[in-house]
Amino acid sequence: MLLGLLFPIVQAQSDNINFQWLFTCKEKALLVRCDKLGNIYTSNGTIIYKYNTKGEMLCSFSHLTNGKISSIDPYNPMKILVFSRDFLHITFLDTYLSPLNTISGLLSDYNLYQPTHVCASHDNGFWVYDEVVEQLFRFDFQGKKSNESLAFSQITTEKIIPNQIQETESGYIIINDTNYGLLVFDQFGTYIKTIPILQIRHFDTFGNLIVYTSGNKLIALNINNLHQQSVDMPQSDVQDFAIQDNIFVCLNKDGIVSVYKWKPL
Description:
Helices cover 2% and strands 48% of the residues. With 265 residues, the protein is mainly beta. It is globular, with a radius of gyration of 18 Å. The two termini are 17 Å apart.
């Protein structure tokens, strides 16, 4: 049902989808994300800006003292995860982008060796990928380890070098390696399968869909049945993007952020 709403089943090409331009953000960015409420987040690496779909900047947060922002994860719009890989630092922000709590002891307090990627998880938890042991670890909201995956060396003989991890609302954890594909795990960290689609630079998720770009196409892949559909993107120079509900956010090579609304015919 969801797939049909986002990408109509009948010849799901650009002729069947309209993108309605809403606004362009004033600030240039390096990262873009959006949450399930339709809020848009942009960051230049040190400051996060939050917009609504009217183009109004609602609030901002400066991360200057905590290192460059590596990723933003608004999986829970009330508890937004911000990760600095350089400083091994996690900050959780509330809906006004005010700090809720900070985790600065990933190595000492959490017994990790080299955490390179972090994403938010259900029930206020979070996942960490440790590059040294090549494993996923989940911690609950109290900071206690609740789940872990097998070492990736037990899953494949290939060396996995993730460029992104993300938990979906439907309970999957997706790990992307541009030279290997998408590894799919369940919410307990149990390996399910590999989807051998290569050279994905960035993806986002929506329900049971993994959404990524290829050339000038936006492609939606159903995790369960691997059915794919595609549409033409509204601009040709997309370097990064975010998608939720009927909002599509584009970041171009010049750092310009454009926000569109989906408008199925």
